[in-house]
């Protein structure tokens, strides 16, 4: 039964001395480390200093029965994995304790010592699988966060390069065009051509600034999300007839830059989807907070969509971004009644 260099520690809680000895011998023979106590109170005292891999718990004891012990441990937030050992006639009680979190239960009868090691091994296997899954989930979460951080850094770098590099070069060319316009003042055809070139350059500068602001939102200050969402609404308003409004009734502070940028990207994706596909005349971006969470909501009055048609890539991207920062994302829509995207980010307590 031993699974690693360190043998699993089994705590046996039973007021039957003879049975405690027999069970302890059986598990030591299987390579386990064993500790025994004769009451629920003694178990509470023992658990203050050590944590077993598994606890074998008798349901009926004189001072503190199994169900009461489990309840105490739950209240103290110190419940450990446990298997119930119960006598004949207590099957209903055992089932109730299973609902309280027992991994399994075994009856006290002539086959107890043969079945108990099998039951315990199965329970330990389940715990090991759960531990491995929890570690994998944690590692996956860390990798997702790292990928998001790398992606954001790269997007910000590209945005900054566009603004500082290409944007400045275009501005310099525009200035050269202004000088060239003066030089060809006496030649109307050339002057008009220079004016057209200058106009195209100004449009290119505007486009570069828009792109660079989208790739590199403000993210250095706790309230930078508000600034970035305000800029997103202004940019959206400049692109066409759809009006975009940003609402933030009170200051919203987010100290984690990665979370702030992820929320911005979700809003950016939702707004872009609405502009491209909804046919909406109005988009509202709202940012609110409570003690427990920050709530970002993007809604439009467009045509909406039918959920039966499935979710598009944009929704999948938003859900992935939300999951990577521990937020919950919900998309509500009915055909002809607009779309509402809500992201709720719990605050760390």
Structural features, described:
- With 349 residues, the protein is an alpha/beta fold.
- Among the domains are: 9-109, Response regulator (Rossmann fold), CATH 3.40.50; 218-349, Histidine kinase-like ATPase, C-terminal domain (Heat Shock Protein 90, 2-Layer Sandwich).
- 54% of the residues lie in helices and 17% in strands.
- It has nine helices and ten strands.
- The strands form two sheets. A five-stranded parallel sheet has the order 2-1-3-4-5, sandwiched between helices. Strands 6-7-8-10-9 form a five-stranded mixed sheet, with helices on one face.
- Helix 2 packs parallel to helix 3, helix 7 runs parallel beside helix 8 and helix 8 (257-278) runs antiparallel to helix 9 (313-324).
- The longest helix is centred in the middle third of the chain and has 72 residues, at 112-183.
- It starts with 8 loop residues before the first strand and ends with a strand.
- The model has no long low-confidence stretch (mean pLDDT 82).
């Amino acid at each position: 039964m031993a699974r690693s260099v360190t043998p699993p520690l089994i705590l046996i809680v039973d007021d039957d001395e003879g049975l405690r000895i027999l069970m302890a011998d059986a598990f030591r023979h299987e390579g386990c480390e064993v500790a025994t106590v004769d009451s629920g109170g003694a178990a509470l005292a023992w658990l203050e200093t050590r944590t077993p891999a598994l606890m074998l718990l008798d349901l009926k004891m004189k001072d503190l029965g199994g169900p009461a012990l489990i309840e105490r441990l739950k209240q103290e937030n110190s419940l450990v994995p446990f298997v119930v050992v119960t006598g004949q006639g207590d099957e209903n009680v055992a089932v109730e304790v299973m609902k309280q979190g027992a991994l399994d239960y075994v009856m006290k009868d002539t086959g107890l010592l043969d079945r108990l090691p099998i039951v315990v091994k199965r329970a330990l296997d389940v715990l090991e699988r759960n531990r491995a899954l929890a570690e994998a989930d944690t590692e996956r979460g860390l990798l997702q966060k790292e990928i998001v951080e790398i992606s954001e850094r790269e997007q910000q770098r590209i945005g900054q390069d566009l603004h500082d590099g290409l944007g400045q070069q275009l501005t310099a060319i525009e200035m050269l065009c202004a000088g060239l316009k003066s030089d060809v003042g006496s030649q109307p055809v050339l002057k008009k051509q220079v004016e057209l070139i200058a106009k195209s350059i100004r449009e290119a500068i505007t486009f570069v600034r828009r792109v660079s602001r989208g790739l590199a939102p403000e993210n250095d200050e706790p309230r930078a999300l508000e600034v970035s969402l305000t800029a997103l609404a202004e940019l959206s308003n400049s692109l066409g007839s759809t009006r975009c409004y940003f609402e933030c009734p009170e200051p919203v502070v987010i100290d984690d830059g990665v979370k702030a940028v992820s929320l911005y990207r979700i809003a950016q994706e939702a707004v872009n989807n609405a502009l491209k596909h909804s046919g909406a005349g109005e988009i509202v971006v709202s940012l609110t907070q409570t003690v427990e969470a920050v709530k970002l909501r993007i809604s439009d009055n467009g045509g909406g969509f039918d959920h039966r048609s499935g979710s598009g890539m944009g929704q999948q991207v938003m859900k992935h971004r939300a999951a990577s920062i521990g937020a919950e994302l919900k998309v509500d829509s009915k055909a002809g009644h607009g779309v509402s995207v809500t992201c709720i980010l719990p605050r760390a307590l």
